[in-house]
Amino acid sequence: MRVLVLGSKGQLGLCLYDQLIKTDYEVTYVSRADIDVGDLLSLNEKILSIKPDVVINASAYTAVDKAENDRKMVDLINHLAVDNLANACKNLGSWLIHVSTDYVFDGTAIKPYSEDDQVNPQTEYGESKLNGELAIKRSGCNHIIIRTAWVFSEYGYNFLTTMLRLGANRDELNIVGDQVGCPTYAQDIAKAIVSILPSLDSKISASGVFHYCGDQSCSWYEFAQAIFVEAEACGLKIPNRINSIETSEYVTSAIRPAYSVLDCSKIDNTFGIAPSNWRYGVKYVLKKMINDGLIHSTS
After folding, report:
1. Is residue 125 annotated as part of the catalytic site, yes or no?
2. Among residues 125, 212, 221, 259, which one is catalytic?
3. Which of 136, 137, 159, 181 is deepest in the core (most CB within 10 A)?
4. In what order do the strands lie in the sheet with 95-101?
């Protein structure tokens, strides 16, 4: 099977490399600089030259607050480019695995969102990601859309790496405590995608939307607490005090969902993929970053 990974320089793209290197698939990794997915003619030509059986789209505009004032660019990357990509996959007969987000929901639910629940994005980012999903469905290409949330890893900028950076330099932090979701380790998302590939190769899978996230819900404040407990155990500097604050006390350009827990039973029932054990992920990330010299223990 030939696999094409788009967005190879992002945190999920790097995790996909870590997982796919363990397989026998013929994999091509490209970044946005290598393929301009906004140019349909160029996209078709380059994908045709690779002739992938599966395209994994890990490329996205993810600067949620910046997107509020950058509507044209976020729509180009998360919607129009995805439309081009889906049509290219349809023309080639390739599968498209596309990563989407919990931001397609409005965050007003009181129980975990299923794939069939009403979507109602509240931000430019969420709107663009939903439009990307709809474009994929309209194209008629074979597809797997994976919605995930609160993604972290040892790579790039994310909540965990931000907490480690701030914790090393500040004695006190204020963290939002009234937004609830499920942290998701990007390596687990990559493993989930790799686990799906054999089903696509054997032509036994059907197109659909699937939710995949962490196995336990928590607030951002509770997530930060868990990070700092493990950081302290690893001998890393942590703040002396962490305060739980309300969303109203932390003003952002984009509205954050108050509740974005996703129901992952469908992906488990269909592919046998259990939710991400994010607490183990936090431990693994800290140990790896210390071993790689990215952060330094004081012990």
Report:
1. yes
2. 125
3. 136
4. 26-30, 2-6, 54-57, 95-101, 142-148, 208-211
Residues 77 and 84 sit within 8 Å (Cβ to Cβ):
no
- The structural architecture, per CATH, of the domain 2-157+184-215+261-277 is 3-Layer(aba) Sandwich (3.40)
Give residue limits of the domains in the chain. Answer: 2-157+184-215+261-277
* Helix locations, the chain, DSSP H: 11-20, 40-50, 64-67, 71-75, 81-92, 124-139, 159-169, 186-201, 220-233, 265-271, 278-291
Q: What is the pLDDT of residues 179-227, one digit of tens each?
A: 999 999 999 999 999 999 999 976 667 899 999 999 999 999 999 999 9
Q: Using one digit for the tens of pLDDT, what is the confidence trace for 37-80?
A: 777 777 778 888 899 999 999 999 999 999 999 999 999 999 99
Torsion 260-263-268-269 (CA) sign: negative
Cα angle 161-167-171, degrees, rounded to a multiple of 5? 165
